[in-house]
Design goal:
This is Enoyl reductase (ER) domain-containing protein. InterPro entries: ADH-like_C, ADH-like_N, ER, GroES-like_sf, NAD(P)-bd_dom_sf, Trans-enoyl_RdTase-like. Residues 12-336 form the Enoyl reductase (ER) domain. The protein contains ten helices and 15 strands. The protein has two domains: 2-124 and 304-336, Quinone Oxidoreductase, Chain A, domain 1 (Alpha-Beta Complex); 128-274, Rossmann fold. The chain is α/β, with parallel strands linked by helices.
Amino acid sequence: MSHVACILPFERAPIYIGPRKTPVPTPNELLIKVISAAINPVDAEIRFKGGWIHEYPNVLGNDIAGVVERVGSAVTQFQAGDRVFFQGTFDDPNRNGFQEYCIVPAKFAARIPANILEDEACTIPVALMAGIVGLFHFTGLGIPPPLHGPTAPTDMILIMGGPSQLGQRAIQLARIAGFRCILTTSSLRHVPLLKRLGATHIFDRSASDLEAQIRAVVHDDLVYAYDAISMPDTQALAYSLLSDTHPGKLAVVLEAPEDRTGIPTKPEGTEWNVIYGSIDLWPELGVPMWSRLSTWLETGAITPAKVTLLEGGLNDVARGLKMLWNGEVSAEKLVVRPWDD
């Protein structure tokens, strides 16, 4: 059996539409008919810049929603016809979403609740897992995961880049964890969105006195910061805003700058941590958090991103990658349906 896929033949090559052998699920896996897949900035980075992938040909698309087509012999929690969503991995092209069928380990899948569409569900996994690792894993901020209620050790957290997909999910996770003062940076046109998500203080990222504005709120009390943008300037600002008298933690999603000239020295024990938001890498955290996800979606504690549907199916993946690479997407997710023409 074969299916249609969007194939990246080698590093930085144009993608093309072609056949792939449909994988057979192992005893603990599910075969998924992919209904919707979202395009992420990392997909565009791989296509135009390279990196991340070590074997070719490959398939991109880590944000996936679909219907269970077949269950492995050892799977008991799902059956054919269930709607699920999950994070793919660049280590295995059989597990990614820009194709008609893929597989997923059953423990990494979550049911899509009735109030959520597949187009919406596929906007969640990658950004949410980055937030889960960034806030609740020891490689990030190390806050206890809120599996059974609020766990925030303090009242305050700073999230740089609130309108980004990573920023939006981090704000919602911070609210679930019980932070009462959630500060974020943004262009002012996104203020209504960020307030709905749970941000309590929103600062104009282009303000000339941005650091002073944030400092006026946090004083010397900020010990948790998460940078969803992670450019050298945003990392430097977030680190500078951490307490000067108490050890704090900054979690970032891209490499920390080697040159830290001009960045103030912080107390011993202050951390500047680069995280990798992969459920495959950190299943001990990801699996129990994923088990809460359907409930959080049903209650609105986690909400999907704004969807922009590219109606050409897999034929529109190349256009979506170019849009992201050119910076044409803000506070929304581009979504394709692999079965559309």
